[in-house]
């Protein structure tokens, strides 16, 4: 075979390598976004959030959006309706057993929950993208999480929130609901114990 006839073959192989490399990069990017360390916006919508220097967004008391109806099956097979906690401050944490930042922050959430539950603060998880409750239950057992989590494998509960409230690619995410069931604060990244406490404290101080 002449050099001229071999050239197209090499060219085709090169093109295939470029396509495969590009496809691989796209898959890698998708996998990385599936457990993002968070972002600054849920995209669009008027949520009245103001971003702080610490990455936590807050909304003034008279400008907060109401949380949607959140109820359904828990990862442990029970039933839970978040509206039953009205009158309490509710900390909603979106997590998945497949998410490394979720594993890192879980002990912080359990510790703060134990410290604040007697003061009228209730924690509720929203487990997402786990294909079975078995993985979610194993995660909770391993991390020592004792509060309930709604099972939301396809993200339907997340989609109930007003546009711009949550970013489906930002897992973990955390919302703090005030005593009237309105969204007072938001984080689209994993939280340290200190940041979580600072996120809750102003809402807890409200009368």
TrEMBL record:
Q: Where does the record say this protein resides? A: Cell envelope
> Which InterPro entries does this UniProt record tie to the protein?
AhpC/TSA (IPR000866), Thioredoxin-like_sf (IPR036249), Thioredoxin_CS (IPR017937), Thioredoxin_domain (IPR013766), Thioredoxin_ResA/DsbE_sf (IPR050553)
Q: Which UniProt keywords apply?
A: Cytochrome c-type biogenesis, Disulfide bond, Redox-active center, Signal-anchor, Transmembrane
Give the CDD domains listed for this entry.
TlpA_like_family
Domain (Thioredoxin) spans 61-205
Q: Which residues form a coiled coil?
A: none
Q: Which domain of life is it from?
A: Bacteria
Looking up Pfam families in the UniProt record yields: AhpC-TSA (PF00578)
Stored PROSITE patterns: PROKAR_LIPOPROTEIN, THIOREDOXIN_1, THIOREDOXIN_2
Protein name, UniProt field: TlpA disulfide reductase family protein
Naturally occurring in which organism (per UniProt)? Streptomyces coacervatus
């Amino acid at each position: 075979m002449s050099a001229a006839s071999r050239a197209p073959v090499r060219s085709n192989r090169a093109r295939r390598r470029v396509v495969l490399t590009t496809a691989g990069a796209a898959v890698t990017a998708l996998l990385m976004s599936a457990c993002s360390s968070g972002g600054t916006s849920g995209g669009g919508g008027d949520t009245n959030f103001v971003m702080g220097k610490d990455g936590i967004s807050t909304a003034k008391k008279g400008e907060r959006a109401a949380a949607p109806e959140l109820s359904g099956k828990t990862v442990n097979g029970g039933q839970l309706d978040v509206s039953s906690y009205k009158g309490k401050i509710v900390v909603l944490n979106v997590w998945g057993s497949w998410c490394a930042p979720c594993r890192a922050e879980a002990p912080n959430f359990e510790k703060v929950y134990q410290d604040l539950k007697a003061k009228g603060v209730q924690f509720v998880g929203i487990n997402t993208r786990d294909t079975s409750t078995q993985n979610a239950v194993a995660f909770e057992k391993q991390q020592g999480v004792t509060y309930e989590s709604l099972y939301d494998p396809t993200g339907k509960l997340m989609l109930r929130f007003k546009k711009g409230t949550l970013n489906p690619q930002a897992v973990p995410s955390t919302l703090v609901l005030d005593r009237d069931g309105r969204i007072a604060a938001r984080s689209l990244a994993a939280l340290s114990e200190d940041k979580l406490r600072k996120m809750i404290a102003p809402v807890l101080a409200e009368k």
